[in-house]
Design goal:
alpha+beta; 21 helices; globular
Length: 508
C-alpha cells in the first residue's frame, strides 16, 4: 500500500471509529466525508474496516454498524460497472443475483393476488437455491480475501449470509406447515435481508474483490466453483485457454497441483514416482489407493493441523456440506460463521490442553439426520497434532431396527433397475419404466404425470407440492412409490404404460 493510499485509509478509519464511539452522528460523518473526499473505493472502505480490528473494535460492533457505514459513504461510494467476462467468478455471482431479483419481481406479482400455495412453493424453492451462492462465496471467495490478509468478509459478511439462509429456511418451514400469514411476514423479512446482502455485494464486496484478488487466483476459483454448483443459472464457460496459459505462475491448486507437490516430495526422499508404494501404519499403499479409499468412505472427513489450518478434506460422494479446494490452508476459524467460532475454539483448546479427546453433535436438516464427530489427533508421544472431523448422513442407519443376518440387495436402492422380488414375474415396460426408476426421472420425461398420479392414489398428493417433490424426486423409486400407493411395482408400471399410451392416442 503506497503512502497516499495508506494516509487515506487511516483518515477513513479515524472517521469510522469516531462514529462507532459516538463522537460523530451519521449526518455529521456524511458532512465530513463530503468535505474531505470526492471518491472512496470499495477496497479503501474494506481496508478501513479491517484497520478497526487493530484498534480493538470487535467484529460484532462493525457488523452492527454496516448499514451506517453505507449511509455515511453513499454519496462517494458507488457500485462500478465491472465489465467482466462470462467465465469470471464475480460475473457469476452477479448473474445469480440478477436471476434472484427476477424471481423476487415474480413474487411481488403473487403478493398482490390471491394466495396460491403451489405458486409460493415454487418461489421459495427457487430462492432456497441461494444457499449455493452463499456456499461458493464462503468456500471460494472469502479464502481468496484471507490470502491477501483481509478477513473481514469471512468474519462480518458471513453473519449476514447466515441470516439470509436462516430467514428463508424459516419461511419455507412456515409455508410447509400451512401458516399463510406467518409465512408472508417471514418472507418479507427474508427478502429485506436478501436485498441488503445483494447491495453490500454489489457496492463493496465485488469491487473490493476486483481490486485485491489477482487474475490467476480467480482462475483457480473458477476451477473449484463447479464442484459446489450454481444458483438459478447454467454453469459459466471455462476461462479462455490463452488466459490460463498467461497465468501459469499460479500456485498448484486442486488435484494437479497437489499431485505435483507430492511427487516432488516423494522424489526428495528417494521414493521415485508418486505411484510407488508407501508404508502406512498397517500395510503398504500407493497414492492412488489412498485417494480411492478416501473417495469411497461413506463419511466426510476433514483434517485441521496443530496450527489450526485446514490441510485436507475427503473427496467423497457422501459429502454432507459443500467444500472446495479454496478451503485448503485456511484458518479453521474463518471456515465457520462468527456465531460458531467460540465453539470451534473451545474444542481445539480442550483437545490441545488434553482435557478432552472427542466431541459430538447431531443435527436434523431438511429431513436428514446429520452426525458430526470431532477427535483429537495425537502422535505416539501424545503430542497434539490437530483435529479430525467426521461427518455422516446417518438417516438410513438411524431408521434400522431388529437384525439383518442374511445377504440382501433390496434394503438399499442405488437408482438402478431391479427385478420385482414378489412371486410375479417382472413386468417389461414398453416405455422404459423400471422398479429402480426414480419419480423425478419419470416426471422429467412425462411432466403431466405429476398431476395425474394424485388421481391414482391420495397418497401421491405430495407430488403437487414443489418442496415435497424436490425432497423425494431423486430418492423415491417406482418400487417405493408403488408401496406408498398400495400397489405392486408391476401394477404401477402397467398403469404408467397405459397412461402414456392414452396420452399418445389423445395427441393423435
Amino acid at each position: 500500500m503506497n503512502e497516499s493510499i495508506n494516509h487515506k485509509v487511516t483518515q477513513l478509519t479515524d472517521l469510522l471509529e469516531a462514529h462507532i464511539t459516538g463522537n460523530l452522528s451519521v449526518e455529521e460523518a456524511q458532512k465530513k466525508v463530503q468535505q474531505e473526499f470526492t471518491k472512496v473505493t470499495a477496497d479503501e472502505l474494506a481496508l478501513a474496516e479491517q484497520e478497526l480490528t487493530k484498534r480493538g473494535i470487535n467484529d460484532s460492533v462493525v457488523y452492527d454498524n454496516m448499514e451506517s457505514f453505507l449511509l455515511i459513504f453513499q454519496d462517494v461510494l458507488k457500485a462500478p460497472d465491472l465489465h467482466l467476462a462470462d467465465w469470471h467468478p464475480i460475473r457469476t455471482y452477479q448473474r445469480e443475483n440478477e436471476a434472484v431479483e427476477e424471481l423476487l419481481k415474480k413474487a411481488e406479482g403473487l403478493s398482490r393476488s390471491r394466495f396460491v400455495l403451489n405458486q409460493w412453493a415454487e418461489i421459495i424453492e427457487g430462492l432456497m437455491q441461494y444457499e449455493i451462492h452463499l456456499s461458493r462465496k464462503q468456500n471460494q471467495l472469502y479464502p481468496a480475501f484471507e490470502r491477501q490478509g483481509f478477513d473481514r468478509p469471512s468474519k462480518i459478511m458471513w453473519t449476514l449470509d447466515d441470516s439470509v439462509r436462516s430467514a428463508f429456511r424459516e419461511a419455507a418451514d412456515l409455508l410447509k406447515d400451512g401458516q399463510e400469514e406467518a409465512f408472508l411476514s417471514q418472507y418479507d423479512k427474508a427478502v429485506t435481508l436478501l436485498k441488503e446482502l445483494i447491495e453490500k455485494e454489489n457496492i463493496v464486496l465485488f469491487p473490493a474483490a476486483m481490486e485485491m484478488i489477482r487474475t490467476k487466483e480467480f482462475l483457480a476459483i473458477r476451477e473449484g466453483d463447479d464442484e459446489i454448483g450454481y444458483c438459478l443459472i447454467d454453469p459459466p464457460p471455462q476461462a479462455p485457454v490463452a488466459l490460463e496459459t498467461a497465468n501459469t505462475d499460479k500456485a498448484g491448486s486442486g488435484e494437479a497441483g497437489f499431485m505435483k507437490d507430492l511427487q516432488q516430495l516423494l522424489q526428495k526422499h528417494g521414493m521415485g514416482a508418486a505411484s510407488g508404494e508407501m508404508d502406512v501404519r498397517q500395510g503398504k499403499l500407493t497414492l492412488e489407493q489412498i485417494n480411492l479409499i478416501f473417495r469411497h468412505l461413506s463419511i466426510d472427513l476433514s483434517y485441521v493441523d496443530e496450527n489450526e489450518l485446514v490441510r485436507f478434506y475427503s473427496d467423497t460422494k457422501h459429502r454432507v456440506f459443500p467444500r472446495s479446494p479454496g478451503v485448503i490452508g485456511r484458518d479453521v476459524k474463518n471456515c465457520h460463521p462468527r456465531e460458531s467460532v467460540d465453539t470451534v475454539e473451545e474444542i481445539i483448546r480442550a483437545f490441545r490442553e488434553g482435557r478432552e479427546d472427542e466431541a459430538e453433535f447431531w443435527l436434523e436438516i431438511n429431513g436428514k439426520f446429520i452426525y458430526i464427530y470431532y477427535t483429537a489427533v495425537r502422535d505416539d508421544d501424545g503430542n497434539f497434532k490437530g483435529v479430525l472431523e467426521m461427518m455422516q448422513d446417518a438417516t438410513h442407519i438411524r431408521s434400522l431396527e431388529g437384525s439383518q443376518r442374511l445377504l440382501t440387495w433390496d434394503s438399499k436402492d442405488h437408482g438402478k433397475a431391479k427385478a420385482d422380488t414378489g412371486s410375479e414375474a417382472p413386468y417389461e415396460s414398453s416405455h422404459g419404466f423400471a422398479p429402480g426408476t426414480t419419480i423425478g426421472e419419470a416426471i422429467k420425461r412425462y411432466p403431466a404425470l405429476r398431476n395425474w398420479l394424485p388421481a391414482l392414489s391420495p397418497q401421491y398428493k405430495k407430488l403437487t407440492n414443489p418442496l415435497a417433490f424436490k425432497a423425494m424426486a431423486n430418492i423415491a423409486t417406482l418400487d417405493m412409490v408403488a408401496q406408498r400407493g398400495g400397489f405392486t411395482v408391476n401394477e404401477l408400471i402397467r398403469k404408467l404404460d397405459q397412461w402414456v399410451d392414452s396420452q399418445t392416442e389423445e395427441e393423435k
